[in-house]
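REQUEST ID: PR-0412
SUBMITTED BY: lab tech R.K.
PRIORITY: routine
TASK: structure prediction, single protein chain
INPUT:
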Amino acid sequence: MKKLIQLACCIVPLMTACGGGGGGSSATSSSTATVSLSGVGSKGLFANADVQAFEVVNGALVSLGSSVKTGTDGSYTLSSVTSTSNPVVIKLTITSTTTMLDETAALGSDGNFTASSTIPPVGTVIRSTLQDLTTNSEVHITPFTEMAVSAAESTGTLNSASLLAGRQMVVDTLGLNPFTIKPVNASATMSTDQSKLMLLLTGVAQDAKTAASTCTGDASGVTCAISNLTAVSKMTKNTSGNYEPATATAFKTKVDGNITNVKAAITAGTITGTFSTNIKNQTISTATPTTVNPTTAAVMASLEGFVNTFRTGFNAAGNTIYAKALETQNRTNTIVLSTMGQTTGNIEIALRGCLNDSGFKCTDPMFTKTASNAYSFSSKSGDNTVDITGTISGSYDNIGNVTLSLYEVYKRAGTTTKLYEAYLDASGTGVTETSNEVTLNLTKYEMTGYDITSGSSKFVKVSFNGGSLTASKTNKTLSINGAITIADGDGDSFSGSLTAAGKQIKISPSSSTYDWELESAEIAVKAKAANSLLLGFTITAARDLSNYYPKLPETSTNIVKGSASATIQFTDNVKFEMSGTKTTLTEKPFNIKITTTDSWVNMAGTLTAKGNGVDEVNSDGTTVTSSGTYKAVVKSQGGDIYKGTTKIGEINSSGWFVDGKKFVVEPLTLDIGLYQTSVVSAAVAKKSDPTYSTVYNSSTKTYVTTCIANCT
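STATUS: complete
OUTPUT:
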């Protein structure tokens, strides 16, 4: 019967290792699907510019919802836009209150761009485009995206084919994708592609300054600088239905000239600062534009849509969760609740050493008797860095009536600095090896962890007060339930409930001895943080013990089958759902879904046990689906990419390929604690960039990135 008490005492620390989580309601569908569209508008970054989306219907632009203003960082978000499978054009329009940052001027004291003294005329329009708007999307608006829309217009027909061809021609020529790379301010930490895009935009700014004196009606020169670009990006449609650049060499020459002029200005000291050094060191290998097949362009755009969904779904949700986990970690600093398992270990020692047939007597050498049925104890951690002291008292009789009170504290060795503290007050009846019915009441069970930072008053307290355990040898059943509360020194508070059930099972097929095992458990907690961050979680687990004998080694025939699921809910509508099952000794199917207000990504596969506690995704790979119609099957040696049921690309060790055209592979690894699942997403076409593979090393808990193709 002592194991019953141990089960009750162990279940709370078990919960603390599960992390945050939560319930949350599912979204209801509406008759008309709506999505969101976001991005950044820049030449320099535009603030207070109007942004409006349009779908292209029979060559005409039909508005999708109302316009919004860009923020001070140039960002915009169009919410609740009616989804459409038609191509979409996004217009940024200069207003009387619009401001524009200048990449060529001296930086401000904060290291960022300063506002230009002149702006383009009110009514100036810069455009971008998307293949469709069937899922939440992100697209940026710059003079280079305007080139693509202008190129489509130059063919005489604005439709899906011409817009896709215009996009592809711009991407192929620049060697990067201005539709998906986010423009930023000067002090931002930039990826290589962002640094290259900022070099190109600074080139436009420099060209605008040169053109300003002769640019009729525009003292900023921006409209003329953009006209210089669109004049060399015109296309014609040939008899085969493909699109050809009208002035291929002039397109490349103009872009290269802008880059050369910027670098010359930096060398001459006209453009200065850390930002200028960053962009001067970038090398952009532009290409002479060639004929574009609209079918291939459509496939490329489909893959780009898949990438965008990953970036706005997988990354946004994952980053939000990581940010909240980091915030929680920062709030509690170096408090590590899992170490409280050591507290439970001492409770188990007390139970084994103090409940005897002759009454309540603690016989372990760590205990010193201080009064009748009362003892003090003292020990050290295995590495002698922690002093553990406390008191224990209780009563126990031959019919199983028991009371138990325990207090213990962990301190830094040789100091008064508290690390952990635990209180337990419990009572029970029938706690004997021969009793048929047992009841145990946990009047008080509290564990507190303290921040060890000097001068800190932070703490985290986990309480399982008023809990109860009942067990019946007659029915061979066990139940545990009670209220859980969690609180910390910052005023955060959590409350919820815990329920669990178990049963007695034979320890081996031929034995007449039974042991207690937990069969199911559920923890549901809602919480409110001092900083108004609300969250909750629900964790459920079930074990199939029908073919399991606890005293025998686990084999293919002696196995605990089961399932577990966890749902984490944040108040900003980020939800994280995990589930897993175990039906054989080596196979564990899993499913992971991350949902935000805007999108979702789901990963499913099967983990195979490789020994030594290591699990790997099996040869079938991880199937990744997302908002919309995109899917990838990612395997260790490659995979396939789909839009709906149509295969649009392949993955191998050298990268992602569509119609023989290579895409850079950018590994994304989501470490969710319960499973480590590597997912690969793609950036846009590059012809010679290195390809990297990232692998998670579970033993060192680090990620190792290795170049596997086009390495320099």
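NOTES: The first helix runs from residue 2 to 16.
REVIEWED BY: pending
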